[in-house]
Known about the structure:
This protein is an alpha/beta fold. Helix content is 46%, strand content 11%. A 7-stranded mixed beta sheet has the order 3-2-1-4-5-6-7, with helices on both faces. Helix 1 packs parallel to helix 3, helix 5 (90-100) crosses helix 15 and helix 15 crosses helix 16. The longest helix has 17 residues, at 286-302. This is Anthranilate phosphoribosyltransferase.
Amino acid sequence: MHDVLIALLTGNRSVDQRMWRSFWDRLHDGALQPGETVALLTSLSTRMPDQSTLSALLRSLDERRPPVDVRLDDTVNIVGTGGGPRTFNISTASAFVAAAMGVRVVKTGSRAYSSTCGSFDLLERLGIGLTVSYGQTEATLERFGIAFPGHFVYPREVMALAKSILPLDLRTLGGFINKVGPFLAAMPVSAQLVGVSDPSLLPGLRHIAAAVADRKIWLCANDLGIDELVSSVDNVIYTNDGSGEIQLRADAPGRAPGGITELRPTGDDTTVVEHFLDVLSGNGTSLATRTVCWNAAALAVAGGRIEEWPEAIAAAEDALRGGGALDLVNRMRAQPAHRAADPRGVR
């Protein structure tokens, strides 16, 4: 059994970068014993590794990536850890609203893991393609102000793990990959808004974010366990730029327990697109509209487009109710980007 597995399963020591490097080498060489990758994913998804092990894992993957030849300045990435109560595609809607406000946005994501319809599933149904390279992502940003990168931003080791556990599904064993997914995607942006559903993840994710120097990272959390900002409850944003915590107070206190149903996905799989477009048309519920606008405002403030939160929220509501966000969706649907290969179940 590989040393990485022994350390993870016994919990008697951290896994350093050298050990992870050896594991990935063996994975690509086909030299691991049968079941070792299943054991790895099961262990990681059952218990989050210590901060030292987690940091070493991410560094070991970063060192294996090909160089990224573009820099997406003045661009914000929005992504979540998944998990928590099921909601409609809030972050994808927020990305369109923010882009209609003039914020340059990239939305990374996946197919459905714990949700009914993941961002990649929704985009496929809308007829909006994923970009297949950094160059195409940059070109799409210049054209539309928003882009949806495909699987090329994730380490090839994720794909190798997915193949190694067949016929098992990564969506069954890949909970850990989903949780750290926001830090697996290599996005050369200026800022990143990360929704965190499970508060127990925050210490590890804050530790990772603190070591990131090339972009501003905002980790967002609330008591509902939804991995986006929600306007009906208090939210906290943990920053990595020395600005401390940002507290966002509920604008409709007391609505959350019953009102959360307003954020649920449509019950009929065939009406996902219709429901999504209704929200972007300004015909969604009050809570859905305000929640989307709060997240779009966060993208504007994090990206430096607008300084003050009230102004940013007002601008988001104008972009949504004024038709700018819906118009952007329709323009992208009319001229979709080249579709990326998207093996089901790999974040």
